[in-house]
Amino acid sequence: MQATGDSGLDIPWAEADAIIFVVDAQDDYFDALSKLNQVILQGYRSNPDIHFHVFINKVDGLSDDYKYDTQRDIEQRVHEELIDSSHEFQDPASTEPFRLEAEVKLRFHLTSVFESSIFVAFSRIQQRLMQEERKTAAAAEEPESGQDDQDKPSEKRISLHDAVEQACNLLCSSCSLEKAYIFDVPSRTFVGCDTSPFDLPLFDVMFQYTKFLTEFSDLYMAVTADTSKSTRTWSASVVRLGSDTSVAFWQLNKYDFNIARFRTTIDQLERLAAP
To answer: Does domain 13-114 have CATH number 3.40.50.300?
Structure first.
């Protein structure tokens, strides 16, 4: 399916939830930003709900000052391009100017394949889409109703992202943990965490720990289990890194029944608490 527009990309925009555009921070990126603008215009015209994520890549070889200056320069140039293109989406019947730069769902990420930043960026994209799942599901379940139903307050619906976040908050509170993440171990991305501030050094410890677990699980995968003894269907590991630092890992049920049940319970409690 050839989408209309100038980017020349063969993308079914209506089926896309997110677009990732990679910019080389160590190269001349002016042509890339021009291409990015075409992609945004074409994608937004076909599907205004698409999330655009720009990976400013190869920042591992840059100083902190230089990479943040590069990010600001790229963001400003993209922002100005969107302002200049706003007139293409202006409704002739509206007296209010259309602000494309405010309507497009656009985020920038500093990334490198040689460190955890690329995995953090993919994790943020996953969580963003999990938040949007709430709106999509609510819209799909909204029935056609008359005036009487319109007067009733709408029911609250908790997203999968919010359910996971609250589960992590409860875990930290009940177990006195500093931070809790729910990782997809094979991809080393996290689908959720508690609401305490993100700490990159602490995340790097967790990130390296998941890598360690993956390597050792492969090492022992061929070992034949003793069937005469009861075996667990889940994995667990605890490592003490220092006098005041420990890292613990518990595997969730692969069918994520507990998360689904927790989400349903939170949803019901919110409805009961609603005035």
So the answer is: yes
